[in-house]
Amino acid sequence: MQEDLTLIERVRKGEQEAYAELVNKYKNRLYVFLLRMLGQAQDAQDLTQEVFLKAYCQLGTFTGSSQFFTWLYRIAYHCAIDELRRRGTAGNVPIHDMMLTDNETPERICLAKERAVSIQKQVLRLPESYRIVFLLRHTQELSYKEIGEVLDIPPETVQVRLYRARQKLREMITASEQGGDLHEMLNL
Questions:
Q1: How many CB atoms lie within 10 A of CB 81?
Q2: 117 and 73, same structural domain?
Q3: Hey, how many other C-beta atoms are within 10 angstroms of the C-beta on 135?
Q4: Do 84 and 141 sit in the same domain of this protein?
Q5: What pLDDT sits at residue 96?
Q6: d(CA 159, CA 174)
Q7: pLDDT grade, residue 62 (50/70/90)?
Q8: What is the mean pLDDT of residues 32-56?
Q9: Do 156 and 115 reside in the same domain of the chain?
Q10: CATH number at residue 152
Q11: Among residues 94, 128, 155, which one ends one of the domains?
């Protein structure tokens, strides 16, 4: 955190390259977060740039009372929600490549990818308040406190929403595995 504060002070003094260091430090994490929120690579890429531009313009409002990346995620979260509302959709689910290990057969890899896609689709079906908490915790590995700072809610609320998100996700996956999605596809 101290390194970020030093870079921010350098930016405030007019050193553009200090902001480039902050961008390089957080661009990948921010992009992955936005990709999972929006589901489309190009939109996530565009929004990542927009978030860094907004953050630069609003850097004077950063007080240092939270970590810089928490403040940055808060801006990203609001931009992503605005984009989703503008679109009126949750977007498409990205499929992430999985690593191949020696003991995995092509069938196992295929099944694992199908399961991952199914889980990602279910995550996108979670209510917005549960989905964002779930994604921040499990894809960005933020603490309850950090998630609370991003969303401006108490850590206890984060914990409750995360519990409910996991519970709801478990129910949806169980229903899906018992043929719920297959029955819907076959109109049964």
A1: 13
A2: no
A3: 22
A4: no
A5: 41
A6: 22
A7: confident
A8: 88
A9: yes
A10: 1.10.10.10
A11: 94
Whether the per-residue pLDDT at 25 is higher than 80: the answer is yes
User: Is the pLDDT assigned to residue 157 strictly greater than 90?
Assistant: yes
- What mean pLDDT, rounded, does the chain reach? 80
Number of structural domains the chain divides into: 2
Q: Are residues 83 and 146 in the same domain?
A: no
Q: What is the DSSP string of the chain?
A: -HHHHHHHHHHHTT-HHHHHHHHHHHHHHHHHHHHHHH--HHHHHHHHHHHHHHHHHTGGG--SSS-HHHHHHHHHHHHHHHHHHHHTS--PPPPPP----TT--HHHHHHHHHHHHHHHHHHHHS-HHHHHHHHHHHTS---HHHHHHHHTS-HHHHHHHHHHHHHHHHHHHHHHHTTHHHHHHTT-
- The mean per-residue pLDDT over the stretch 137-156 comes to 88
Mean pLDDT of 144-157: 91
For the entire predicted model, the pTM comes to 0.62
> Domain check: are 129 and 67 in the same one?
no
| Cα four-point dihedral sign 162, 129, 43, 145 | negative
Q: Which domain holds residue 113?
A: 96-188
Nearest Cα neighbor of 39 from 113, 92, 83, 116 is 92
Asked whether the predicted pLDDT for residue 158 surpasses 90, the reply is yes
Q: Which of 66, 94, 122 is the last residue of a domain?
A: 94
